[in-house]
């Protein structure tokens, strides 16, 4: 469930990026764009799923996985939006991934 939540959050960020090209604060009606509404729905559903995760898993164990979003969002932006990603971003994401692995190893809190 944690990984599904993170994937949904990353998708929501990509949708927010797409919506940002369609909305304008000078035109309030533009905030009714389908992309923005879908992004808000996906993000809201991910938040509810995160609550379900937290009801089953200690926060100290679940939260380090949240760091994977710093790897997933750039990866989705590269894959879906064709944004260039600097090598430093990939290296930083790898370091975060290593940190998540280290944080999830060992005895689990009871």
From TrEMBL:
Protein's cellular compartments: Cell membrane
Keywords per UniProt: Cell inner membrane, Cell membrane, Lipid A biosynthesis, Lipid biosynthesis, Lipid metabolism, Lipopolysaccharide biosynthesis, Membrane, Transmembrane, Transmembrane helix
GO BP, one annotated term: lipid A biosynthetic process
Protein species of origin: Stenotrophomonas terrae
Gene3D superfamilies per record: 1.10.3730.20
UniProt protein name: EamA domain-containing protein
Organism lineage: Bacteria, Pseudomonadati, Pseudomonadota, Gammaproteobacteria, Lysobacterales
Record-linked InterPro entries: EamA_dom, EmrE-like, Small_drug/metabolite_transptr
Regions that span the bilayer: 31-54, 61-81, 87-106
Molecular function GO labels: transmembrane transporter activity
């Amino acid at each position: 469930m944690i990984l599904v939540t993170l994937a949904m959050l990353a998708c929501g960020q990509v949708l927010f990026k797409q919506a940002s090209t369609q909305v304008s604060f000078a035109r309030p009606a533009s905030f009714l764009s389908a992309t923005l509404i879908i992004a808000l729905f996906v993000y809201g559903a991910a938040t509810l799923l995160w609550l379900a995760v937290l009801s089953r898993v200690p926060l100290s164990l679940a939260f380090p996985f949240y760091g994977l979003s710093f790897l997933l969002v750039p990866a989705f932006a590269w894959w879906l939006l064709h944004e260039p990603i600097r090598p430093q971003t990939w290296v930083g994401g790898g370091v975060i991934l290593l940190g998540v692995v280290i944080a999830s190893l060992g005895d689990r809190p009871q």
